[in-house]
Design a protein that fits this description.
By secondary structure, this protein is an all-alpha fold. It contains 3 helices and no strands. Helices cover 64% and strands 0% of the residues. It is elongated and about 40 Å long.
Amino acid sequence: MTIAELVIVGAALVIIVRLLTFRRRGKRIRRGVSVLAWLLISASAWIIARTVTEGHPDAWWFALLMVAIATLVLRADGNLAHLFHPHRRL
């Protein structure tokens, strides 16, 4: 595995873990955001499986994209609804 592939797998794991450990703490449930979180977890798991089994040539651009998404998820504390409010500060 190359360094870029390791970065991709690490960022995908961060996304999965942070979304799975999100606690609502009385916030309302938004079905669309829940579906989006499920899709993001599924896509991240698929990316991990594909990267480990097949590899990813020239993966640096994709590694940067995954790190950016992981950073956004971490800054929003796993609450994807915060990413869609332009007036809220992350």
